[in-house]
Design a protein that fits this description.
By secondary structure, this protein is of the alpha+beta class. It is about 35% helix and about 30% strand.
Length: about 230
């Protein structure tokens, strides 16, 4: 088959509908055709969505079944709600990074629509503190949280005799979402307390627990949210 005709098989190949012999010949064509190789990559998101649709659709549903009249409205409403939540989370995260980068007294103005700007400073009332020691790893940690407009300001102290290793503090939301609050390097053979500062876009009431982990994901100690 001529190369020009092979170009027309790129969609069928990406969707996996060519028979074995045709697929084999097209793969030979791919080795010499950067254009078709790029097109196969472009088809991958659509192929994945079709695969997910096939897996999630009961066999009793006809492949060309039409959606209900209110399905589009529900999908649009869900997308709008998720976009709004994403924008709020991004705004809180940006504000958190500004406060942490300042390294001292800072003021961040956060305005939404016509609401007046809120002012916050690096100093403020403490919301709570919790301490825990893991019997297996010997790691001790203390977490103190403060509510901010952008989320939660977190102060953490850790005693870790297992260095040298890279570690991080992770805030785990009550809904299972995770955010890395801060990270640090444990010096070798040093059990002295280290103190770090970080922040999370999650509010303190949304956080279920904190976990100290190594950079490789090894669990060191868990602290229930204050």
């Amino acid at each position: 088959m001529r190369s020009l005709e092979r170009h027309g098989d790129v969609g069928a190949y990406a969707l996996g509908v060519l028979d074995e012999a045709e697929a084999f010949r097209f793969e030979d064509h791919l080795m010499e055709c950067p254009r078709c190789t790029a097109h196969v990559s472009e088809f991958r998101p659509a192929t994945r969505q079709l695969m997910l649709y096939r897996r999630s659709t009961p066999r009793t549903v006809h492949p060309f079944a039409a959606p209900g009249p209110r399905l589009l409205d529900r999908l649009l409403a869900e997308v709008t709600a998720r976009n709004r939540a994403g924008r709020r989370r991004l705004l809180y995260a940006v504000a958190a990074s500004v406060v942490l980068a300042a390294g001292g007294p800072a003021i961040v103005a956060v305005a939404a629509h016509d609401a007046p700007a809120h002012r916050i400073t690096a100093a403020g009332p403490r919301d709570g503190s919790v301490t825990a020691t893991d019997a297996d790893t010997g790691v001790w940690a203390q977490v103190t949280t403060t509510d901010r407009v952008w989320g939660t300001d977190v102060d953490v102290r850790v005693k870790d005799p297992g260095g040298p290793r890279s570690c991080r503090l992770v805030a785990v939301g009550k809904d299972g979402t995770e955010e890395t609050v801060t990270s640090w390097m444990v010096p070798p053979h040093d059990g002295a307390a280290q103190r770090m500062r970080g922040g999370a876009a999650l509010r303190s009431g949304e956080i279920g627990r904190f976990e100290v982990r190594t950079a490789d994901g090894e669990h060191l100690v868990t602290l229930k949210a204050p």
